[in-house]
Design a protein that fits this description.
single chain; mainly alpha; Zincin-like; 16 helices; 74% helix; globular
């Protein structure tokens, strides 16, 4: 157990070191206007960008350190054993016991995160002009999120424990099948049921833009059912756009904040990039990869839980199955850490392919470059991430790197 704790603390310290490198890199180069951004930002905006990212990094360090301390005390300080013993003492059926065990942990994590979320939204985001959410709306969103999490998490827990109880030798496979089906189901219903609980989706009111989008999608072979403008400005001034849907028919969603800041050519380049992900089958490949890994993880978990290794290493009482699941989840996060750079690399490679697709299909790299400049400028993105930090954390290539690569396409 001591060795596992040391490994976890080593990984945590390594992450803090990466944060430190990133912070120092920003301090060193953050006051220099890149050639790609000349005319788009001035020293005041660059200073604001630097301060915003530094403040987020510092806050992230405090939040991470606090959660790390809580986690270590919970897992290694005997609190998990006490909590597990209390749940067992209730003498409830297996599924109900598991539901109570994990739902209370979910609520505890949510409560611990509330002060940090409040500070992030109403201090940092407010200070830099991003937050437009009222305290009343934040409370409503939090209640909705908690209710949805309770229902969905409860459903997953009950289904998983039911399969464990009914199929003790093959539950790992049946749970994997359930998760796969549930994930696909959620991808179908989320745009129609869950997302409208938080945002209003209005049909696009720009006929020229809608015509351009449909023409673009027809050109790349993607069927579009509806194109929506989302009222993101009710909560934030950050910008974004995305596709939803499974199969050949897609829904396109544009943040109203994005439409306010970009012209039609830039918006079409952004959507061509998103279309590139679908045409290059990045989404499908990602699902296949994650589900393949999930199947292996489920089988390994099954073998470990059957061997009672965790009872010996972590001195868990025999029969404390739910505690073993928590410990196993903790071990899996440690095991996954070395693979993080590989997954991030694959993601960045996909982004480069989507950029190339957008450039080729539009025949206009300039619009994509100006869109990236505006996205970075308006979101106060860090223009100078440390290369090693990017290796472990960036799913997209740093913006300056993307712009240089797009220019090489031409």
């Amino acid at each position: 157990m001591s060795i596992i704790l040391l490994i976890y603390l080593f990984i945590t310290c390594f992450e803090y070191w990466l944060d430190y490198l990133n912070l120092q890199n920003l301090r060193k180069y953050g006051s220099v206007i890149p050639a790609e951004f000349e005319g788009e930002i001035d020293q005041d905006l660059l200073s604001r960008t630097q301060n915003y990212n530094i403040e987020k990094m510092r806050f992230g360090f405090v939040s991470s350190a606090f959660h790390t301390i809580i986690l270590v005390f919970f897992l290694f300080g005997g609190i998990l054993d006490l909590y597990s013993s209390w749940v067992v003492s209730l003498n409830l059926p297996f599924i109900l016991s598991g539901l109570i065990f994990f739902i209370i942990l979910l609520y505890a994590e949510t409560l611990i995160s509330i002060p940090f979320n409040l500070y992030s939204v109403f201090r940092i985001e407010n200070r830099y002009g991003f937050n437009t959410m009222t305290s009343g709306l934040w409370i409503k969103d939090s209640i909705k999120s908690m209710l949805i999490s309770t229902v969905l998490t409860g459903l997953v827990i009950c289904a998983g424990l039911f399969l464990i109880e009914k199929s003790p030798n093959l539950w790992w496979f049946w749970i994997w099948c359930f998760f796969l089906a549930f994930s696909i189901f959620m991808m179908y219903i989320s745009p129609y049921i869950i997302e409208p609980l938080f945002h209003k989706f209005n049909p696009l009111d720009d006929e020229a833009l809608e015509s351009g989008i449909r023409e673009l999608m027809q050109k790349v072979g993607i069927k579009v059912s509806r194109i929506f403008k989302m009222d993101a400005s009710k909560r934030t001034r950050h910008t974004n756009a995305y596709f939803t849907g499974i199969g050949k028919v897609k829904r396109i969603v544009l943040y109203d904040t994005l439409m306010e800041r970009m012209n039609n050519n830039e918006l079409l380049s952004v959507l061509a990039h998103e279309a590139g992900h679908w045409k290059k089958r990045h989404i499908l490949k990602f699902i296949i990869l994650t589900e393949g890994v999930a199947l292996i993880v489920m089988y390994v978990s099954f073998r470990i839980l059957n061997m009672d290794i965790l009872n010996v290493f972590f001195k868990i009482e025999e029969g404390a199955f739910f505690s073993e699941v928590v410990i196993l989840g903790f071990l899996l996060t440690i095991t996954a850490f070395p693979f993080s750079p590989i997954l991030k690399y694959l993601s960045r490679r996909n982004e480069n392919e989507a950029d190339k697709f957008s450039h080729d299909i539009r025949g206009d790299g300039g619009s994509m470059i100006s869109a990236l400049v505006k996205l970075s400028r308006d979101n106060l993105s860090n223009l100078y991430p440390h290369p090693l930090y990017a290796v472990f954390h960036y799913t997209h290539p740093p913006v300056l790197e993307r712009i240089k690569r797009i220019r090489r396409f031409s």
